[in-house]
Amino acid sequence: MFSRDRWQEIFDTIKKNKLRTFLSGFTVTLGILIFTVLFGMGNGLKNAFMEFFMDDATNTFFIFPGRTTEPYRGFKQGRRIQFRNDDVEDIKKDFAYFLDYISPNIQRRGMVKYQGESNTYSVGGVGPSYRLNEKTIMMKGRYLNQHDIDNRTKVAVIGRLVERDLFGKDANAIGEYIVFNNVAYKVVGVFQDDGGDNEERVLYVPYTTLQLVEKNNDEISRIVLGYDTSIGHAGAMAFERSLTEYLKDKHNIAPEDRSGIFIRNLADIVQQNMMFANVIQMVVLLVGIGTLIAGVIGISNIMVFVVKERTKELGVRKALGATPWSVIGLVLQESVFITAIAGYIGLVIGILILRSMGDSLEDYFIVNPSVGVGTLVGATVILIFFGALAGYIPARRAARIKPIVALRDE
Amino acid sequence: MIEIKDLHKSYRTGSNSLHVLKGINFSVKEGELVAIMGSSGSGKSTLLNILGMLDGYDTGSYHLDGVLIKDLNETKAANYRNKFLGFIFQSFNLINYKSAWENVALPLYYQRIKRKERKDRALHHLETVGLKPWAEHLPSELSGGQKQRVAIARAMAAEPKVLLADEPTGALDSVTSHEVMALIQKINDEGRTILVVTHEEDIAHMCKRIVHLKDGVIVSDEFVEQQRAEANV
């Protein structure tokens, strides 16, 4: 089957039938090319989704207060729920086993000034552990610490772009004072965040300070917590349920009231989005496989045509002593050889296209489009297999050619 | 060399059965040059196909060089064809994308002979038919007579016991026909057994023996005075 002479014979045939070879190879090249590019783009989409979510921790619950819709324990319906500092303390105390970190969060938005410059930013009143949620990276200085919280110091940590906007390029904001809501804060740190520009146009101040300068109360707008990842997905779900129950009881909300408290589980949201990305990739994969099948059918068609065209030649070969198996081998080996080479060419072109694309389609949510080696090898092997299968039916028909029929003069 | 006894062959087309060969008794000794004649439908092509193991037969027996040829599977038939027989066709049947010597070497390829030796032997046979200078040419670059000479060289390449020629001059003009027949006579002079199917009287008379077929039976079988083809060239 793999003797040098057979290869010689196949190379001779290919060399002297270039158009035929090109035609049968072309569909395969195209099929693999489209498959590679589509699959790579699918992967790119998935990468984009990944990048979108992975800059924030995914073991996060956001807890929002709502408004009750049912009367309970003597309270009327329509009551607004308000979280306070002791909610954080209580959760910390009663759910210590599940917790990785917990931080209150007060969200404000407003004008921030430094000397002549000013701009509108979101300002978060947070605790030190809030940093674990956003996965912020400190460039200069420090983040908020417990001392800031306890003493209600007037310090701020600002995003990279806030520094650039207000202080200008290459300036150092550390130690300078900025003004928000008529209160001056000393900048103690500058951070960066992979989540994009919006997450770098943010300032953080101690939540206790914000409470003090605003109304001197202990109200917080939401609670952010991270659970210990070792409890797993099921553990997180259970934690979410018991936490909801706990807070409803504490705030006198009816157990079946769905709008008193909301918990957003980021892991669930990420999972839903990843599922969406996976579905898209499945669709892309199906389209790709469809293209491959079209390519295979293309080979099969061309092999049928080739065998028909070669009927006479194969008849002569049989008259000269070619056995049926040597005829099958000849046709099949040629088809597999062409398929493999053409597939490889398609593969290389596809990968080059994906490479040249790079991150230029980032705006369309395609990041680093690429195809795994395993997928590629798999696709090629499948293609060769189907190429052989597609070639086998015509090849067997070729082997059945009766020399007398083939040699009969028209 | 060839022994045929009471050979019957019929073709079934649907419910009809066409009895083509109705009891052929026929033998050929080594070194003979036999013409098989007959009008179309006489069964001469069928007989040649059976002789060439390209087709089977129903009853009777066919021995080639002492070997019974009956109900062979395809692989065995292919091997016997390769070893025992050389074919010459009316339309030459050269492979059009192979050069003259590659065509000649093809039977040797199926004997698994090494490429270098194949080429040497092919060139030798091309030399005997006087076409060595054309060894690297494609069939399309050769004239009809040259093509048939290449085909004869190919038939000779595997040193077969019997050459079977089906209307070898059917596609050629009379001058080239005589050239080709001269070559066949020369090969026969060297002792090769050759069967020629033809419907042309003058071609038949260049053989040593003429067998007439009519409606599936041999109506006459006689030795004739051989006319040398060279005389007519």
Describe the structure.
The complex is a heterodimer of chains A (410) and B (233). Chain A has 13 helices and twelve strands. Chain A has 410 residues and is of the alpha+beta class. Chain A has two domains: 4-53 and 271-407, no CATH class; 82-250, no CATH class. In chain A, the strands form two sheets. Chain A has a six-stranded mixed beta barrel with strand order 3-4-9-6-8-7. In chain A, strands 2-10 form a two-stranded antiparallel ribbon. The longest helix of chain A has 44 residues, at 266-309. Chain A is elongated. With 233 residues, chain B is of the alpha/beta class. Chain B is built from seven helices and ten strands. A six-stranded mixed beta sheet of chain B has the order 6-7-8-3-9-10, sandwiched between helices. A four-stranded antiparallel beta sheet of chain B has the order 2-1-4-5, with helices on one face. In chain B, helix 6 (174-189) links the parallel strand 7 and strand 8 (193-197). Chains A and B meet through helix 1, helix 10, helix 11 and helix 13 of A and helix 2 and helix 3 of B. Chain A: It comes from Robertkochia marina. Chain A: Its main location: membrane. Chain A: It is a multi-pass membrane protein. Chain A: The chain crosses the membrane at residues 21-41, 282-307, 327-353, 373-393.
